[in-house]
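Request: Give me one sample?
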Amino acid sequence: MMKTIKFYTLGCKVNQYDTQVMREQFLARGFRELTNGAAAQVYLINTCTVTGRADSESLGFIRRAEKENPRARVIVTGCLAELDADKIKHVCPAAVIVKKGNWLKQGISGFSGHTRAFLKIQDGCDNFCAYCKVPLARGPCRSKPLQEIVSEAAGLARRGFKEIVLCGICLGAWGKDLRPAGELAEAISCLEKIPGLLRLRLSSIEAGDISAKLIAKFKNSKILCPHLHIPMQSGDDEILQLMLRQYRRADYLGLAAQIREDVPGIAITTDCLVGFPGEEERHFQNTISLLRKIIPLKTHVFPFSARPGTKAASLPGAVSPEEIKIRACRLRAVARECALKYQQGFLGKKVSVLVEQRAGDDPACQEGHSDNYIKVRMRAKRGLRNQLVQVKLKEVRGDYCLA
């Protein structure tokens, strides 16, 4: 009888890609994937350790798998497995812990349950920001060769994926370790030639990795989506220095202004870390003011949690958990203001939307994202999944626009 398996993925787009690699390997060996409430014989949990909450959620999925089928084989991989196997064994002594190895050599042929496919072209990070365990878990920067990227992307396009999202732990570092070295704008130029690929989107990219060539590519490309996710983390120079970030407030502000001047209408999304050791109200106010100047479409607000093995874990000036929670709520309110302001700038205008799924329980309401990453809902008499449609934005409703 065919064995059954369930996959649980926590964390970033890179983890989702890695899970798809494993999914294809298991299905090729005769496993059947379950996505309902039935118990499976095997559970594969791809963990995250970027925050303390991510650790807790990862362990929670392991407990959930054990509870659903106490006799199941539980396989655990991902960043938590790389760094804290003892935590996993404490929760599930029988868990099989699998280290990742170099999966850049693996490829995917599809992306289960998605209309957009994530394509990992880079892994690892050399930055060692003071708060981050990821370089410890993922290792140094490594790039997938350009020929393999193009081949994999072409295969996804042939299978009907109209949008591909390039992702990596430090995406902007792609090509620096290759011989001869490459750069991201070069890779985009090659991917633009793939028949059937209508959209190419970048995941997170550091401010220092956004070159003039890359901005020019956004300005001139017919398929590169006008959307950049540029982590900010803090808007204060003292805190950025303590974080070991490689830019300052003026650098970030100047970069955003240059991008907006060269690519009108482009969406900027970002990350902010709240409550870093030493952060006082004046530092926090600088983050608020920078956010209001940038007007990001989306802002992921992360409460600081000390990660063992990082420099920040031993820094003085800890902010109380209560204050971190208050500041996170305040910053999320500012983020909503910024999102509303950005979205309102497109009301009455036509945008191109890749329809992804039905919205809620209404079969006549469908949703997707515009090229500049506005979530859009629309009414349609027939299914439009995986189709690009032109719509006019009418109204902002929370985190989406009605078209």
In short: The radius of gyration is 21 Å. DSSP finds twelve helices and 18 strands in the chain.
